[in-house]
Design a protein that fits this description.
- The protein is mainly alpha-helical.
- It has helices spanning about 5-10, 15-25, 30-35, 40-55, 105-125, 150-154; strands at about 55-65, 70-75.
Length: about 150
């Protein structure tokens, strides 16, 4: 999904990134989301409203049972790009995501990325006589996300 600077700021919070990912997989109410994340429902409701305000989330459905209204929210996307952000002309594709990972999962992700490099190197070699190929540099970075107010916002 293409986003602007205000939307980029709204999704930069790690808790909001986790909410976006969960609501991309399955629409849920703020209470269901809070229970799954083991967070205060008021906190989750606030973050969901901010993401709705910035058009990252939307209402998927509304259920009314005995006068109680339940709104189910869903994420419009799980990956985002900002076309306003200057990208060097030689950059073909650039994406970023904030996720929570244990050290074990960081190691596993790194190994999976290395396997993808090998896979596409092999596929490239197999198609070398069938398709025109250009040279690309593929880089990746796994960086610990440090947010000063992260703990207090959760």
């Amino acid at each position: 999904m293409k986003i602007n600077w205000k939307q980029q700021k709204a999704i930069s919070n790690p808790l909001r990134s986790r909410i976006i990912a969960l609501l991309y997989e399955k629409p849920m109410t703020p209470k269901q989301t809070a229970d799954l994340l083991k967070k205060n429902p008021g906190t989750i409701y606030y973050h969901i409203q901010q993401l709705v305000k910035h058009e990252i989330l939307e209402v998927d459905s509304v259920n009314t049972d005995k006068g109680i209204v339940e709104k189910y929210y869903k994420s419009k996307a799980v990956t985002f790009t900002n076309p306003e952000q200057e990208t060097p002309p030689e950059h073909v594709e650039q994406k970023m995501a904030t996720v929570y990972l244990s050290q074990k999962l960081v190691n596993e992700l790194s190994k999976d990325i290395e396997k993808l490099f090998y896979k596409y190197g092999h596929l490239s070699f197999k198609e070398r006589d069938e398709e025109e190929q250009l040279s690309y540099s593929i880089e990746y970075l796994i960086k610990k996300h440090i947010n000063e107010g992260e703990k207090s916002e959760e």
